[in-house]
Amino acid sequence: MKIAIASGKGGTGKTTIATNLAYYIAQSGENVQYIDCDVEEPNGHIFLKPKIEEKDTVTVGVPDVDLKKCNMCGKCAEFCQYNAIACLKNNILVFEELCHSCGGCMMICPCGAMCEKQRAIGVAEFGVAGNIKFGHGKLNVGAIQTPALIKYVKKKANINGVVVIDVPPGTSCPVIEAIKNVNFVVLVTEPTPFGLNDLELAVGMVRTIGIPFGVAINRCDIGDGRVVAYCKEERIDILLEIPHNRKIAENYSNGNMILQIMPELNEKFETLYNLINRQINV
Amino acid sequence: MKEVIVISGKGGTGKTSITAAFASLAQNAVIADCDVDAADLHLILEPDITTENNFSGGKTAVINTDKCIGCGKCANLCRFDAIHLDAKATGGGKKFSIDPISCEGCKVCVEFCPVRAIDFKDALNGKWFISKTRFGPMVHAKLGIAEENSGKLVCLIRQKAKEIAKEQNKDLIIVDGSPGIGCPVIASITGADLVIVVTEPTLSGKHDLDRVVDLTSNFGIKTAVCINKADINPEITEQIVEQAGKRNVKVIGKIAYDESFTKAQILKAAITEYTGGFIAGEIKKIWQEIIYNLG
Q1: Which residue on chain A is closest to B12 by alpha carbon?
Q2: What's the gap in Å between the CA of A27 and the closest CA on chain B?
Q3: A169 and A213 both lie in a single domain
Q4: Average pLDDT, chain A
Q5: What does DSSP say about strands A132-139 and A92-94: parallel, antiparallel, or unpaired?
Q6: Structural domains of chain A, count
Q7: What distance in Å separates the CA atoms of residue B60 and residue A267, rounded to the nearest whole number?
Q8: What number is the average pLDDT over the span B178-193?
Q9: How far does the CA of residue B242 sit from the closest CA of chain A (Å)?
Q10: A155 to chain B nearest CA, in Å?
Q11: At B134, is the pLDDT very low, low, confident or very high (cuts 50, 70, 90)?
Q12: Which A positions 115-174 lie with beta carbon below 8 A of chain B?
């Protein structure tokens, strides 16, 4: 079973909920893995403090031109939809950072002058944090192939138990890649105008893809009642509400797990997990 | 004309609230919201839209089922796993269809279909707007649901903001960027005069700041840091100041945690409009630092 923790707006508490849900599931004796797919800014490791046992360099294929075979016909540059190839008088320039690795230039080249070489875009690391299995991706600074790295990290998340996926913020391609093929999405928000606006975008996204979902409201007592009203109107279940608490904020700032500091919150995560299970099994 | 971009690395640090305050303080600026993935600045600025345009960031492939012979070559060639057997297709025989969400518009299937059964159409990825606001002209956008190409949309918005600045003799562009360090962030900072990173004193904030400063130094862009909610963890605030000093990045201000930010947001006001108190004074000082650093 794969559960994705996502949010339109950043900084609403995705990582807090994802790490603590994984922690709760592990405490209750189940086999669980936490996978951080926020590969541009992964933070889960700060809280779970995993021991890394395996590190893979993740690469994507980019074209490599053999100028001896090339006849400078320019078909590759003309074909590329991402402007990643320029054909000059007697040279071919490849802008690797723009390449989407579609392989089109290699197929279109009439001279067989293009082959594929690998370009590193980041690393994927796997290990354990107590009885939680851990995995995350770290995108290289300057790389833009966020979805490719997410895909790799997810592919390796191959256990029989529960997988909790920490999703990057937003609603575009990296998010789509992270929530693809999951069983359930928890959308984390806060009861503010920004939180509501971005929740509406996120709801539109999960509905388009067609994955069952529910909402978690963090700092539920700041702001106004419009998020709750919206959820009621749209018949969206609110699975978890965590009040604002300076103690939580301070512990978060130091990288502490809130369930370790405030075991009284255990019940809330138990309810969250039960509600997710019930909805998946409907 | 100068361009200042506000980004954050980590989300939820207060980037957009602070950008709205800067917009209220700027005398002669164009405002651009480049956080196209989850745009919020319009909730404070309440733009009055004067021009609305479609945004097409690329093309998308669509199989014409009448022509498809079901050979499956397209599905074999597609590197994005976007093409599958269409179970719902009628008319007999195997047919394939393309998932528009997975399609990256690379054209491989279009080119190599043996019966030319695949069309290559302009994708409608979103809309972009030119608006009037109480703080000046604004360029902003709405990316379609589950759409991509946000980097291209960011470039387009910055371009339009520059054109408007030229037309209307504005000497400054204020850009609200997106979280992270990926494609939309790179598209929003390249060639900018100054990047302001709004961070918070948490281990996550500090970690993400470090990565985002790696990115701005990679591109050689002058960067300054503003620490929001600085009193949540004074120790980490100090660490951030120290770390910034070592990297030649100036910390231009610290803002204490303040519930006025949420209250202002609910009233659709910039924090500087909501209160004339201490917080507003601090943000004014930061804005003066920004003007000074822009030269």
Answers
A1: A11
A2: 24
A3: yes
A4: 96
A5: unpaired
A6: 2
A7: 47
A8: 94
A9: 17
A10: 14
A11: very high
A12: 139, 141-144, 146, 168-174
**B108 and B169 assigned to the same domain:** no
- Which residues of chain A does B58 touch, with a Cβ-Cβ cutoff of 8 Å? 81
- Angle formed by the axes of helices A193-209 and A226-233, nearest 10°: 20
Whole-angstrom Cα distance, residue B204 to residue B200? 8
Do A224 and B266 count as a contact with CB atoms less than 8 A apart? yes
- Judge if B215 and B284 occupy the same domain: yes
CB of A204 within 8 Å of a chain B CB? The answer is: yes
- What domain range is B111 assigned to? 59-122
Q: Residue A9 and residue B11: Cβ atoms within 8 Å?
A: yes
What residues contact A115, with CB distance under 8 A and at least 6 apart?
A: A63, A64, A66, A106
Q: Which residues in A lie closer than 8 A to residue B178 (C-beta atoms)?
A: 170
The answer to whether A8 contacts chain B (CB < 8 Å) is: yes
Provide the pLDDT for residue B92: 67
Number of folded domains that form chain B: 2
Residues of chain A contacting B182 with CB distance shorter than 8 Å: 40, 139, 143-144, 146, 174
Q: Which domain holds residue A127?
A: 2-58+121-281
A178 neighbourhood in chain B, CB within 8 Å: none
Residue B93 scores a pLDDT above 80: no
Residues A195 and A104 in one domain: no
pLDDT at A252: 96
Q: Are residues B93 and B192 in the same domain?
A: no
The partner residue sitting opposite B186, judged by closest CB among A79, A100, A144, is: A144
Res. B147: pLDDT tops 90: no
The CATH number assigned to the domain holding B50 equals 3.40.50.300
A132 shares a domain with A107: no
The CA distance from A2 to A108, in Å, is 39
Based on the fold, state whether residues B101 and B212 are members of the same structural domain. no
Domain finish residue from B75, B91, B122: B122
DSSP B137-166: EEEEEEEPTT---HHHHHHHHHHHHHHHHH
pLDDT in tens, A210-260: 999 999 999 999 999 999 999 999 999 999 999 999 999 999 999 999 999
- Please report which residue ranges of A74-192 form alpha helices under DSSP H: 75-79, 104-108, 146-155, 173-179
Task: Look up the CATH number of the domain holding residue B105.
Answer: 3.30.70.20
Residues of chain A with pLDDT under 70: none
Residues in chain A: 282
Q: Are residues A141 and A231 in the same domain?
A: yes
Question: Are B270 and B225 within one domain?
Answer: yes
**Helix B203-218 with B234-246: angle, nearest 10 deg:** 20
Given B78, B101, B122, the domain boundary residue is B122
How many angstroms separate the Cα of A14 from the Cα of each of A22, A79, B36, B61? 12, 40, 20, 34
- Mutation pick from A14, A17, A40 vs chain B, by most beta carbons of B within 10 Å, is A40
pLDDT digits (tens, 9 = 90+) for A92-110: 999 998 899 999 999 999 9
On the question of pLDDT at B169 being above 70, the answer is yes
Q: Which domain CATH number covers A25?
A: 3.40.50.300
Please give the pLDDT value at position B90: 66
- Cβ contacts of B270 on chain A, cutoff 8 Å: none
Return d(Cα B188, Cα B107) in angstroms, integer: 27
Interface size A-B, in CB pairs within 8 Å, comes to 172
Residues A178 and A225 in one domain: yes
- Please tell me whether residues A76 and A199 are part of one structural domain: no
pLDDT of residue B86: 84
Q: Same structural domain for residues B171 and B217?
A: yes
